[in-house]
Amino acid sequence: MKAYWIAKVNINEKKAYAEYAKRAEVAIAKYKGKFLVRGGRFEILEGKDKYERNIVAEFPSFNIAKEFYNSKEYQEAKSFRDGKADFNGIVIEGFSTE
Question: In the CATH scheme, what is the code of domain 3-93?
Answer without folding.
Answer: 3.30.70.100
